[in-house]
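Fold it.
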Amino acid sequence: MAPDPNLTEAFTIPVELISPLPRRLRLSGNAVFLLLVLALICFGETTALAPLCVTVPQRIREASALRAGARQADGTVQRVWYFRRSSAPSVSYTFIVDGKVYKGDSQAPSEMAHKLQQFGPITISYLSENPRINHPAAWQYSIWSDWGNILVPAVLTIVPVWLLTLLFRERQLLRFGTPTSGKVTSCYKGKNSYLLRYLFQTDDGTTRTGRGSSPDFIETGTTICVLYFPENPRRSISYPAPNFYPASLAPRGTDIQSLFHTPIPSIDADSNSKTR
């Protein structure tokens, strides 16, 4: 197959990429800042989810015990409130067993909203051996009442996992990728950097497209260095990369301005166009 002459013109591989594999790498200031942010997100999610890992199973066990054998007592609604825009009310109540006052709270179904009034009556189911385990008799505990507390941290977990995956892929390309020349086909301003689209040619002469980023604007048609996996050319990245660099280079500065320049690595290439 004939190679594309536009992609095979004279090109010098950067000296730092001519080294035994795997290449030794350093983290850039961008990567350090990004990892710190991810660590804070993971800490917040762990702080939010850890108590639920204890309380939700405990509530399930208590609900099972109440269904198996509970006594009932007349209680008094102390407060009714709604969480944000929820149509399901939350209620706190008190009841008396053997002259002692016990408290509890629960989220009620939406259909109970018109039946619950402050200082109104409410029937409470409780365990005779431990009245602190109790629940309104009109409805049972459902794990869906805690879905908001569980869902939000769980969804937020997707973000650090996705970013860590991109960082890992970028690192693998810098360590093991094959260097070749590429041509910039477009360059446009992103949120924190310029986003590139480029063409490059594999060893077998197939033309591939890819995406990357650059801190500076690059003219269309400019020759750049591209790292890719010969066994999977869909994985490629423009070089220099935003978050890793060869250890043979001088350490990159981590001044304040660079810390706030955090482009997200773009590694997955658009490889649906092949030219023979």
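Residues 164-276 form one domain.
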